[in-house]
Write a structure and sequence with these properties.
about 150 residues
Length: about 150
């Protein structure tokens, strides 16, 4: 089996953290910029993506799921609106995003993240409207904010 330096770089790139198809494609384009023709670049992308798929290293749904969980569970969580925009920029399709955000598990996680932010910020914001505005600015849905405030 012949060694492919570009494939090795891409394998290292995806080993750092999960990546979307668009992120991997962009990475390959950057590595081949000014080194090959557009046709050669596209052929390299297709070839490497096929190899990554065979190795089960490219999975946009799995990537989106782990990204959502990471953004909702961190020390400074974000709400669905911001997460949806970040994933869209990373090349995840809108239909997939809508399906994921409809899952009850993620709705509960968003409410839990909103509760966490309320506990963390309730001393800073004495006026409930200011606290709601802060949560909205963090991307939380009105539903999640209301549910979290009720608890």
């Amino acid at each position: 089996m012949e060694s492919n330096p570009l494939l090795n770089k891409v394998l290292h790139y995806v080993s750092i953290r999960p990546r979307s198809r668009k992120e991997i494609s962009t990475y390959i384009k950057e590595k081949l910029y000014k080194k090959s023709t557009p046709e050669e670049t596209e052929n390299s992308i297709v070839s490497i993506m096929e190899k990554l798929e065979d190795l089960k290293l490219v999975d946009d749904e799995g990537f989106a799921r782990s990204f959502i969980e990471w953004r909702l569970s961190g020390s400074s969580p974000k709400g669905f609106r911001i997460i949806r925009n970040e994933l869209f920029v990373k090349g995840i399709e809108r239909d997939l995003l809508e399906d994921l955000f409809e899952e009850e598990e993620y709705k509960e996680m968003e409410i839990s993240a909103a509760e966490k932010m309320i506990l963390k910020k309730s001393r800073s914001y004495k006026d409930p409207r200011e606290l709601k505005n802060y949560l909205i600015s963090r991307g939380f849905s009105a539903f999640a904010i209301e549910e979290a405030l009720e608890k």
